[in-house]
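Shift notes (night). Ran Magnetosome protein MamS/MamX domain-containing protein while the centrifuge was going.
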Amino acid sequence: MIFLITLTTSSWSQEFEESYDPNTEIAIKGKIAEVIQRNHGPVVIGIVKNDRIYHVITAPGWYIEQEKINLNMGDEVVVHGSKFFSKKGELFLIARAIHNISTGKIYLFRDENMKPRWRGGRQHRKKYWNSIIQ
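Came back to this:
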């Protein structure tokens, strides 16, 4: 179960944006069990591994569409991402890259400096971070 909550403080949004920590990066392999996409905000996918669901924050929906990223339920994937804990203590992964084994495609979400690849479009970024998972 995932709840998307709109944040009103831009400082927390900025903290999340800059929170990708390569020191906490892990890789998980599993199947996509859910894809959650709202009008605004990140696309979140649930990956099942060993009967546990890992929630992965990917990118804004407009970026997913622009880059023609296909992440479908049932696809087997390997996710490389940084661990992130919500204020409620829930574990999420912020995706750096996703290898969709089912399609053979590799999707990159972060650059070599671990900054979001969609960065720069201020109006898009604002919408993205105002609808983030808490």
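The first strand starts at residue 25 and ends at 36. Helices lie at 10-17, 61-66, 122-129.
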